[in-house]
């Protein structure tokens, strides 16, 4: 059977959200950033909050995110996006504010920023792209690099004695009373894309309802940094990253109320 008989041209329809610009992204083939950008544009458009939404872009592969989604943006210094988002959300609480960060930006230099922002329950959405490597600067080891994983700075694989354990930042965020919704998703299959979209929508709805910090990790590939084809990278991610970074919701509720939290402390 010819492939044309299976895939019909009339069924190949690409629905482009109006919030996505016409600029061609600079991302490598197979990169997850483009898919997540599309999901963010869809969610913001669907909720009708384009004029109210402010994104904070990072230092890293997504440093030019402001070129691709037609909303207001603010650039932040490396790792400081949660602090910048905190300032914006407090000055103008009617805005819906989100950060978009990679593992080097958020889980390394920005660890203190995200932990304290989430612990305070700042009313922001945090989108965390975890590809277990420093993608933009040459494929060095990141805090989330797996044990044994080969990178530019761990040519023999990440060593526990020398480099310590990979950081499960999402599980840490899930323990904080200010975090309302914490989830880990991926975008490697159509089903995964739909689940990730649902998690992003819930996060933005939480921000609109002033529920506290919502945090969505997206376990992603880095074909260039991993030195794999897009297909091989997806397979490697499924076999190696998902067992250590399991997909699913970690916390779903709202930030702890001050009275309840004080009472709990007194009982303990």
TrEMBL record:
<dbReference type="InterPro" id="IPR011766">
    <property type="entry name" value="TPP_enzyme_TPP-bd"/>
</dbReference>
<dbReference type="InterPro" id="IPR029061">
    <property type="entry name" value="THDP-binding"/>
</dbReference>
<dbReference type="InterPro" id="IPR051457">
    <property type="entry name" value="2-oxoacid:Fd_oxidoreductase"/>
</dbReference>
<dbReference type="GO" id="GO:0016625">
    <property type="term" value="F:oxidoreductase activity, acting on the aldehyde or oxo group of donors, iron-sulfur protein as acceptor"/>
</dbReference>
<dbReference type="GO" id="GO:0044281">
    <property type="term" value="P:small molecule metabolic process"/>
</dbReference>
<dbReference type="GO" id="GO:0030976">
    <property type="term" value="F:thiamine pyrophosphate binding"/>
</dbReference>
<dbReference type="Pfam" id="PF02775">
    <property type="entry name" value="TPP_enzyme_C"/>
</dbReference>
<feature type="domain" description="Thiamine pyrophosphate enzyme TPP-binding">
    <location>
        <begin position="73"/>
        <end position="218"/>
    </location>
</feature>
<keyword id="KW-0560">Oxidoreductase</keyword>
<protein>
    <submittedName>
        <fullName>2-oxoglutarate ferredoxin oxidoreductase subunit beta</fullName>
    </submittedName>
</protein>
<dbReference type="GO" id="GO:0045333">
    <property type="term" value="P:cellular respiration"/>
</dbReference>
């Amino acid at each position: 059977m010819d492939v044309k008989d299976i895939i019909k041209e009339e069924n190949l329809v690409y629905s482009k959200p109006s919030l996505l610009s016409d600029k061609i992204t600079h991302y490598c083939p197979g990169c997850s950033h483009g898919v997540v950008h599309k999901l963010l544009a869809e969610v913001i458009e669907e909720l009708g909050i384009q004029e109210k939404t402010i994104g904070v872009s990072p230092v890293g592969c997504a440093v030019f995110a402001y070129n691709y989604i037609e909303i207001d943006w603010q650039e932040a210094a490396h790792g400081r996006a949660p602090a910048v988002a905190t300032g914006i959300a407090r000055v103008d609480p009617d805005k819906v504010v989100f950060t978009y960060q990679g593992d080097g930006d958020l889980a390394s230099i920005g660890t203190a920023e995200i932990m304290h922002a989430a612990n305070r329950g700042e009313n922001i959405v945090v989108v965390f792209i975890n590809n277990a490597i420093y993608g933009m600067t040459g494929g060095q080891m990141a805090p989330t690099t797996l044990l044994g994983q080969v990178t530019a700075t761990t040519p023999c694989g990440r060593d526990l004695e020398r480099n310590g354990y990979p950081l499960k930042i999402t599980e840490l965020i899930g323990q904080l009373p200010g975090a309302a919704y914490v989830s880990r998703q991926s975008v490697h299959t159509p089903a995964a894309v739909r689940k990730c979209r649902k998690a992003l929508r819930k996060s933005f709805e939480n921000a609109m309802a002033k529920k506290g910090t919502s945090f969505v990790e997206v376990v992603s590939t880095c074909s260039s940094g991993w030195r794999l084809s897009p297909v091989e990278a997806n397979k490697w991610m499924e076999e190696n990253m998902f067992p250590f970074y399991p997909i699913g919701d970690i916390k779903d509720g709202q930030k702890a109320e001050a009275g309840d939290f004080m009472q709990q402390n007194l009982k303990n």
